[in-house]
């Protein structure tokens, strides 16, 4: 008579152990697969694209918001010196010009 409850308890303990052992061997689906190299948040992974978000020109000072950061003339953004800040453009030392609202300012057909 005593063997039936012990066998039932043994069955419960054994099945619990087996379930937890098989769950421990499962791979976390949120982890990257094998052979994947995860990049850190270093300067090498920073995007080189620049977006002119805003320009403030007041009296003799001008500031530009590029990629969410505030800059003034002479400072560097992504390693390129800001040469001039106008009302809707920023001229860079490498010859590029960042323009605000380019699609809105341009009038097609002219």
UniProtKB/TrEMBL annotation:
It comes from Shewanella youngdeokensis. Keywords: Signal. The keyword Signal applies. Residues 1-23 form the signal peptide. This is MSHA biogenesis protein MshK. The lineage of its organism: Bacteria, Pseudomonadati, Pseudomonadota, Gammaproteobacteria, Alteromonadales. It comes from the Bacteria.
């Amino acid at each position: 008579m005593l063997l039936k409850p012990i066998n039932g308890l043994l069955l419960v303990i054994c099945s619990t152990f087996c379930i937890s052992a098989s769950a421990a061997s499962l791979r976390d689906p949120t982890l990257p697969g094998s052979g994947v190299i995860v990049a850190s948040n270093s300067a090498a992974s920073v995007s080189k694209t620049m977006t002119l978000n805003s320009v403030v020109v007041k009296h003799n000072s001008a500031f530009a918001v590029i990629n969410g950061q505030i800059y003034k003339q002479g400072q560097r953004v992504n390693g390129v010196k800001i040469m001039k800040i106008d009302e809707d453009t920023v001229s860079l030392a490498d010859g590029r010009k960042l323009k605000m609202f380019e699609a809105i300012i341009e009038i097609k057909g002219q």
